[in-house]
Each structure stands twice: as C-alpha cells, then as structure tokens.
Amino acid sequence: MSEDPSKQLPERIIDQLHVPDDAGEYRQDLESILKKIPDGWGRWISCDRGWYPIIVEVDRQLEELIPGYQVNQIKEKFGTLSYYFDITQETDPYTLQHPAPHVDADQEQWNKWSAGWESWAESEEGKTYFAKQEETLAKANQIVQAAARLSAKTCELCGKLGETKNRGGWLQTTCAECEKQD
Q1: Per-domain residue ranges for the chain?
Q2: Which residues lie below 8 Å from residue 81, measured CB to CB, with a gap of 6+?
Q3: Residue 4: pLDDT above 60?
C-alpha cells in the first residue's frame, strides 16, 4: 500500500521558493531573500505587494550589517510587517580555532572543550566579541522595528500611504482607495 499523496505534499513544496506572482520588479530581490530561509521553514512571504519595497530595504540593511544572516519568516501580523531573522550563521572565534568535539565524543573531551570556551568567553577577547554581537543585534532589531512602524502607515496592497484598521476581526493596513475596492 502506498503512502497518502496528501501527506507527501508539504514535504515536496516546503523547501521550494514561493516567489509571489505579483513580485514584478522585486522578483529577483525577493527570490534572494527567500533563499536565506533554511530548509524546513517554508520559503514564502506572507504579505502583499505594497510592502515588497520595505522587505527589500530591510534585507539590504541587514545584509550590510550581518553578511549571510538567516531569514526565518516574513509576514503580516496585527496589520504590520513582521520580519524574523537570526544570526546563527556567525561563529565565535574560539569555535573557529577550536571546533567542538563530535557529538559522539566522551564527557572528558566535552568538559575540556567547554572549559576552554568558557575561559575564552570570560577573556577580554570574548567579552569584546559578545559585546559587539549584542550591539549588532540591537542595530538589526532597530532596522526591523523601523520597518514595522513604516508598514503601519503603508498600504499592504499598493504601497501608498495607509492606515491600520480593524477589518472584521483582523487588522490590516490599507489606503482609502484599496479599502473601497475590497
């Protein structure tokens, strides 16, 4: 007996790039952004065309600040843009010089490596590294928060000046023109 094809569907499509049909001149940029989403997370953008320029600008600024950053999800939430990212692709200098033992290593090897890492983390070099990481993350969060504030006054549908309103139980940011058409 073969497996139910409907159960295979998510596994077949989740890692494909789902570039929005209305991407237009943003297609190449959005495709590049979607490629930053790791396998298994689903590579799509869950908002409308009016916010594509904001998304592209957030990506440009984050990439400048954190080259190779990871995108986790981009969507509309409570009427504004939510852009989730991570900096997990960066590695601390200690780990680069002293790779962690293999997962099968014995406890003594792990203890020795961990003690070295903890010693490095408490050193001036380690403290400087983590302070810089914290500063970088704070700047990245400011970029994302500024984009959310901008989206709260940008029509999600067309990109014109808009307003966040309750639309039958959910919040959506639209301009007067798009609101009339809907």
Answers
A1: 13-150
A2: 47, 51, 54, 55, 74, 75, 147, 148, 150, 151
A3: no
Is 0.85 topped by the overall pTM? no
Nearest Cα to 78, choosing from 138, 30, 149?
149
Q: Between the CA atoms of 41, 28, 142 and 68, what dihedral angle is there, to the nearest 10 degrees? A: 60
Residue 17's DSSP bridge partners are: 43
pLDDT tens-place string over residues 138-172: 999 999 999 999 999 999 999 999 999 998 888 99
User: H or E stretch including 170?
Assistant: strand 170-174
Phi-psi region of 42 (alpha: psi -120 to 50; beta: other; left: phi over 0): left
80-86/43-46 β-pairing: unpaired
